[in-house]
Write a structure and sequence with these properties.
By secondary structure, this protein is an alpha/beta fold. Helices cover 39% and strands 22% of the residues. One of its GO terms (biological process) is tetrapyrrole biosynthetic process.
Length: 235
């Protein structure tokens, strides 16, 4: 069984694809989202750029207008926004923030006002890059992610009984929190296999069983998880 350390809405697509491969998974986020209040009227008339579902969640919890002009990094985030009844949503069809920056610079109209909605912990700020190319961008922090101090009792039992043998992690901060909690519960970290979205995330964990896909996409991550599980079965 593999642990997926994401919010359930983010983790379900991965869980569904793994289930098709007969790979069991358990979902448990390492963070709780806290929206940060602000005057949502500042968003009216602007082009809102979003790179995570968490920003969409925060907008919904803050009762922002459903007709905001929202541009999402990925198709998946756009679908999530529409599921939460935001209806003026367009996807940029990108997989990474770097791709999004290039897309904005090459296709967006510089005469518009842009707001990048992000979390407090987001380290890459697209505003600096885009403004350097003559855009009018500002960053608005609309949420923060509070690290959980404990695993659930269910997860502790799954780890204790070695039902969970693999852990998927999607950010450097999540890797730090996971490492800390494993230490707090006195689990031996070298017993697990870690499936990480990028080498940047992997740099946080000094463990032997690290697996990183060649591309930071869900399909690439699934490929290395599948290869690991099938190899384990053959052995």
């Amino acid at each position: 069984m593999i642990l997926i350390t994401r919010a359930i809405e983010d983790a379900l697509p991965l869980q569904e694809e793994l289930a098709k491969l007969n790979i069991e998974s358990h979902i448990e986020s390492l963070f709780n989202l806290q929206p940060l209040s602000f005057d949502c009227s500042i968003l009216v008339g602007a082009r809102i750029v979003v790179t995570s579902k968490n920003a969409i969640r925060a907008l919904s919890l803050l009762d922002a207008s459903k007709d905001l002009n929202i541009y999402t990094m990925t198709d998946n985030i756009a679908k999530f926004a529409k599921d939460l009844e935001f209806f003026n949503v367009s996807s940029c069809g990108c997989n990474t923030v770097e791709e999004l920056e290039k897309h904005i610079i090459s296709t967006f109209d510089k005469s518009n006002r842009f707001i990048y909605l992000s979390g407090m912990e987001i380290t890459r700020d697209i505003v600096f890059i885009c403004n350097a190319y003559g855009f009018t961008f500002e960053r608005l922090i609309c949420y923060k992610m509070n690290a959980r101090e404990k695993f659930s009792e269910v997860l502790v039992e799954l780890l204790r009984t070695a039902r969970v043998k693999c852990i998927s992690i999607f950010s450097r901060r999540a890797a730090v929190v996971c490492r800390s909690l494993l230490t707090d519960y006195r689990f031996e970290p070298n017993l697990f296999h870690y499936f990480l979205m990028s080498n940047r995330v992997a740099s946080v964990l000094d463990y032997p069983n690290i697996h990183v896909p060649p591309f930071p996409t869900q399909s690439a991550l699934i490929d290395i998880i599948r290869n690991h599980y099938y190899t384990e079965q053959e052995n």
